[in-house]
Amino acid sequence: MLSENKSELLKKERVLFVFWLVEIAVILEVLNRLLSEAPVAPTIAVIFYGVIFLSVYFFCYKDMLSKAANTILLLTTALILVLAWIGDGVRDEIIMVYPALAAFAILLGLKKQFNVIFVIMVIYVLLLGVLGEQGYKNFPTDKGNLNSALIITVIIVLTSLVMRKMAQDLTSALDKLEEYKEQLEHRVEVGTQDLLKSKVKLEEAERMASLGRLVAGVAHEINTPIGVALTASSNVMEKNQSIKKLVESGRLKKSEMTAYIESVESNTNLVQANLDRASQLVTDFKQVAVFNVNERKSEFILQNLLQSIVNSLQPVLHEANASVSFSCSTDITMFHDQAAFTQVMTNLIVNSCRHGFEDKHEGAITINVKAIQTDPASHQVEILYQDDGKGFSQEVATHIFEPFFTTKRNKGGTGLGMHIVFNIVTQSLGGSIEVVQDINHRGAQFIIKFPTGL
After folding, report:
1. Domain segments of the chain: what residues?
2. What is the mean pLDDT of the chain?
């Protein structure tokens, strides 16, 4: 069944529909009477009815729907009776208006009021017929005699029965339609919730898969230097055993000792280099995880920090024969972890120098910073980072933020630099970073957005 709120809303819609329909009909009837020079009394009655009928809208506005519906029935019945009395007897308006009035009453569930109107209408029609027949009331036409009254009474009775049945069927159909609508809305809501749950599960599965790829990548990357270091260490141990036997037997030669020292030195350097490589991988891997920045946040002027970052990277820039220019207003103040932001800009600049300017004699990096405000309570910063290096393909752009994705693996690239940038921007700084593909710009371009934190 319909809920109480929806039932009241539907009832209000029906009452307002009838209100506007009746008001329009009243206006048209008044215009018709004025233009046709009809009798004054019926015209005044219709105008008075239209004015009083405005109370229905007031009741609807105050959500007094029962009073509004009862007012429609009362005023319309009274108008029919008045017009029948001051007009030419049992008027055609009774046949025309009564069925609509009956349907309206039944649709709104006003069965008692409908029965009362039915009884009043039948008695009134018969009374007019009797009065006209006996000569107590003079009507200009034969619509006021008893025969006409009896015919109209039969029509009213049959109309009432038919309208009652039709209205009941219509009400039942509307109730079922509304019930089906509620069921459909419920199914859609349940389906939407299921889709959201599935989305969350898919995202969780993707995160776990990403974590699995990350762990597998770390294991693969660390396995190589650790394996080389282990081989070199085993070689040193074998050499130690051999030299130990020679020492114990007293047959150690100078040339053998020299070869031993050279071998140990070579293997030791190999162990050291590969352990350094493994240590760097572990450090990079630790930076992939988002660190807690709540206790390391501080307020700073963004322009000053950018200048400090550029100054600290002068050796790297000098080696690549690259320059950095940036534009940033002095009044942009941030409340974030300076180390996190420094890591982002450092990784981007170092990437440009090592990859973007690899085959160039010189390079230029441009950083444009501007404050944006999406709404009165949201203050953000937008950074457009771009270089004039060789850029990268669409395929590389698609995977650039994935862990261990690199085009320089054979030259020592780990593929963690841009993944670290992505993690810090999206999680530590609470922002976003995206690759910009511009056919008019060859080099790499990134747009970074994040809140100021203030």
Report:
1. 4-189, 226-288, 294-451
2. 76
| Dist CA 42 CA 148 (whole Å) | 21
Q: Residues 284, 416: contact at Cβ < 8 Å?
A: yes
Global pTM exceeds 0.90: no
Burial class (CB in 10 A: 0-12, 13-18, 19+), 3: exposed
Terminal CA-CA length for the chain: 52
Most confident by average pLDDT, 33-42, 273-282, 345-354: 345-354
Can you read off the two tokens belonging to residue 220? 């693969």
* 344 burial level (CB within 10 Å; 0-12, 13-18, 19+): buried
> Is 247's pLDDT higher than 50?
yes
Rg (CA), the chain: 45
Amino acid at the residue 296: R
In angstroms, rounded to a whole number, what is the distance separating the alpha carbons of residues 366 and 353?
13
With a CB cutoff of 8 Å and minimum separation 6, the contacts of 345 are 306, 309, 367
Structure tokens at 183: 């069921």
Instruction: Give SS3 for 449.
Output: strand
Amino acid at 384: L
Q: How far is CA 263 from CA 224, 256, 260, 367, in A?
A: 21, 10, 5, 50
| HSE-up (13 A, CA, CB side) for residue 312 | 13
Pair 297, 453: CB distance under 8 Å: yes
Report the C-alpha gap between 145 and 95 in whole angstroms: 16
Q: Classify domain 294-451 at the CATH superfamily level.
A: Histidine kinase-like ATPase, C-terminal domain (3.30.565.10)
User: How many angstroms separate the CA atoms of 445 and 388, rounded?
Assistant: 9
Residue among 148, 10, 130 nearest 69 (CA): 10
Helix H or strand E segment including 62 = none
Check whether 65 has a pLDDT greater than 60: yes
Can you tell me the mean pLDDT for 150-162? Answer: 77
